[in-house]
Amino acid sequence: MRLQFILDEISVALRRNLAMAISVVLVTLVSLFLLGMGFLAQRQVQVMKTYWYDRVQVSIFLCGTDSTAASCAGGAASEAQKDEIRTDLASPQLAPYVERVYFEDKQEAYKHFKEQLGDSVLSDNVTADQMPESFRVKLKNPEQYEIVAQVFADRPGVESVEDQNQILDRLFALLNRLKLYSWCLAAVTLLCSVLLVSTTIRLTAYTRRRETGIMRLVGASNFFIQLPFILESMIAAAVGALLASGALVAITHFEIQGRLSRSLRFVNYVGTGDAVMIVPWLFLIGLGIAGVSSFLALSRYLKV
């Protein structure tokens, strides 16, 4: 009987305050969706770090005929200079840091260049003779780039020493800032959701003050009187969380795994499974905010 009474109260209240319920649903939808995108961005950064840091290399570019660096004053790198670099990379001093060394000649460099740019205007105007030879060094710890750089920087025959880790750090710094912005925006909308739920509950309680007064007179407990109000807000929040979860999974499946992964294939992306793992958190946060906001609002403003 009590359960049926509570369900009837919720049904009547939702019909009476349909516009307010829809507003709670929409605010919850937006705030939880932005929060989910923040979680997804964090996961994307982790996926990219795992993928790229495992493949990061130090590139020792050798002098070519057209090199203008001071270390290339003697012209293109000679075979003796190349052998000296090979010997140093295999030396006991660098062995604890170097995992693997691969030499890339002009033809291989040109092939990789064409694979990356495809049939573009730039690739059509570049020949194999213009590509630099290089040693590709895979480090056991990518953060120890400076050790290798100090050994080969400014050496005759070496034009430059470049670390892919530096480029990746800038990329991940940008992604982390975007993630932070998404979370800040989500925090603002979540605050709006808390205020809206509290205001909605207070207005609903005020419009039903006669019914709650009667319930109090017949001996109903505070919890029994407050429970329908709390469940109303939680139902609206659950609908908003459901819509936010659906939007998050749909964007991950159709946009990220679908369109984006086909156009930019050199990046590992988050999958639908990653988005699904975020869904329980969205429901937990949405229901928690609605329930706590309603309880606090009722404790302060509902006079029974």
Describe, in plain words, how this protein is organized in 3D:
- Helices cover 69% and strands 8% of the residues.
- It has 304 residues and is an alpha+beta fold.
- The protein folds into 2 domains: 2-52 and 169-301, no CATH class; 56-164, Alpha-Beta Plaits.
- It has a 4-stranded antiparallel sheet with strand order 2-3-1-4.
- Helix 2 packs across helix 9 (222-263), helix 2 runs antiparallel to helix 10 and helix 9 packs antiparallel against helix 10.
- 29% of the residues are buried.
Topology, element by element:
Blueprint: H1 2-16, H2 18-53, E1 58-62, H3 79-89, E2 98-104, H4 106-117, H5 121-124, E3 134-139, H6 145-152, E4 158-163, H7 164-207, H8 209-217, H9 222-263, H10 272-301
Antiparallel strand pairs: 1-3, 1-4, 2-3
Subunit structure: Forms a membrane-associated complex with FtsE.
Family: Belongs to the ABC-4 integral membrane protein family. FtsX subfamily.
Main location: membrane
The total strand number stands at: 4
Question: Which value, in Å, is the CA radius of gyration?
Answer: 31 Å
Largest sheet: 4 strands, antiparallel
Largest sheet strand order: 2-3-1-4
Beta percentage is: 5-15%
- What do the pLDDT scores average to? 79
N-to-C order of helices and strands: HHEHEHHEHEHHHH
Structural class: alpha+beta
Approximate shape: rod-shaped
Cα distance, first to last residue?
Answer: 22 Å
Please give the domain count: 2
Q: Residue share in helices?
A: 55-70%
Count of helical regions:
10
Poorly predicted runs: none
